[in-house]
Amino acid sequence: MSAFATELRLQQLEARLGQVEEALRSIAPAKGGGEDDPLRRLQSLQKNLEDGYSVSSSELIQTQSERFEEALFTSEGDEIRDGITTKGPCYELQHSVWDACLFIGLPTLSKCDSVLAGLLLLLNMITQIGFVVVVCHRMLEDILQPDQLSELLRFRTNVAHDVKYADLSGGRSMARQVCSEDDSLQWANMQTGVIADLNDYISIGPILALLAIGCWLSTTLRELFNITGFVSAIHRYPSGEITVIAPGEDGDSGSVVITQMSTFRKFMLFIFVAVPRLVVAVSLALTGTKYLANTLSLSDLILNAVALAFILDLDELVESAFMPRRARFLLDALGTLPIARLDVPGIGRLRGGFQERGKNLLKLALLLVGLSLAWMCLLQPLYDRVQLAHNILCSGRQDFIYTVNAATGLVEATTTFSESVPLTANQKSVLRLADLDLFSIPDWYEQQAIEKFQKDGEPAILHTADDSEEANMKLLFQLLMLDKSDVEKAAARLPCADDAFPAGLVGDRLRDMTNNTVSSCAELAEKPELCAGMNMNPLRSLCPQSCGCDDPITSAAAAFATVYFGCPKMCMPQRASSIKLKYAPCTDMTPAQMASSSYMKRYFHGLYQVKLGNEEIGNASTNEYMMNLNNSYYNLLPGPNKTESLKEAGEFYRSGGWHRAMAAANFILGPGIPHPRGLTGCAFLDSEEVKQLAGGDLCFPRTDGDPVVSLRVQCPVTCGCKAEERECPGTCPTD
């Protein structure tokens, strides 16, 4: 190898000597004793350089000082300007695992170093591709997609204004606290974090994201052009059976050049270096751009950009940490790999300077195209979704809270404060108890009046805002109590009037409860059977007069004309003092009257819902009925097979047959089982047999808290009514 290098060195020196002699002969004497035209001299020097001849540096400096805007280019594409030579199109070797693979298997590296370099190449490929896979599959989930926006919308329409989650001490809704990023908020931390990110992103997010993507695309474009330069440089070398590395032309022992490259090495470099490197670069360019575009947090945006750059530069980190020193020395010694100049049809081979500048313009054009696509395809849609998410959470009216009235089913709301109110009396009491060491600072001490409420006496337990304020703390706490109340407690504060609530709200609620069959209290009065449903509490609360909550005799609500099932408590005094009740006859309804009475049908249908409407309660009631029937009235069971008859009686009762029989004035204890004493009408209903089998006492006086009304008005004689007793006609005797 040393003899070959010496011979090659002599050939190079002879060639350079011939170039110098030719250059000296080409210098023409000055005409007329004057100086040469600088342009002609420059053109002559340019021709000599393009032909491969060398020129003196002094002549170059003198000529270029006269024509300083011009540059000379050698046959290799090197640019000479102001006597300084810049190499032509070339691939600049870097300290990376990819570039160090040039020397694997060459005599310039030991076998151990080559094996280690190969392992480092494999490690780098696995690591970089692994990072790419993780980013692709775990970190590219689109944010603020329709399902997430729907969840935010449900949050705004449910939790954000719910009285249960409001700051009642400060008089603010959760929506206001979330949107103002209140540090005292104990709920909805996720939504508060989202709002903080949304506010930051709306202000400057797209611009910062575009800058980050621009920096990232510039980094990946540099890598892509390095890959193309590497492939072009490898392809330019003459192919042979072996790869030849020789000392540099200038005789510097620290410089080497590649004069020939084997076909096998070219193939291996392309397969194991260029292709994996290209896959990593393209994948990172695409996934990294989408990853940055999907980053909502501005702080995370910067960190993510740095993390992506770390993945791309991982090959340099591995090389600097583990690559053998000999391979690193060879990278410095080789320096660059020349790239062939482009041959443009009609123009010829481009000058090296033009080729490099054209490459830079192409980079800039690709960068602008990439930024445009990132804006249109990623950033603009994300900004629209961010704006929509912000509108969902914080646009419109924020300062109100609501709850659902347990009796009416309507949403009731009240206004809250837009800003934090001063400390409440209880908070002042807590502050005095804590005995904090407070002092004044600008814009805080006077506002909170610290000194005043630290020295004042005991505060009031309840704090009510001034009448001039739109929001009122008393209303807020009343709403909280309403939220915690059941139907009976909620109905206790309702007025006994059909027009107590806005007609529009009542109509919507009625339509919802009746499957769009009723839209007003007047229409409900024409369908009294709707008021007699056990689950129709809102109808009785919204339309108490139409449902007959104040009617003691023929109430449309029938058995459910009670506060327990939604009739306003204010209707009970009107019911007790009703003119109808005062002048009602003190006589029992006859079986014929019962059979034709729509009230009795609604009444027994209501009793069926109470006793048998719930599966668990219905099963228990049926078992009790069958047990009592078997224990006390077994002999009355029809047919020879008493067990089968008992089973049929149980099925009859469970299906509501007995209650339907009562509504039709068919006074039986069960199918084919008459009353043992032959009683009918009111006497049948008040008999001990019926009380034992069906349960309950229909003559027992009721209070406002009882679930169902009695039949004392319909059966005053059987129930032993007195004129002044509850639920009794006023015409009954007084003693």
UniProtKB/TrEMBL annotation:
TM region positions: 115-136, 267-289, 361-383
Record keywords: Membrane, Transmembrane, Transmembrane helix
Name the record gives this protein: Ttll6 protein
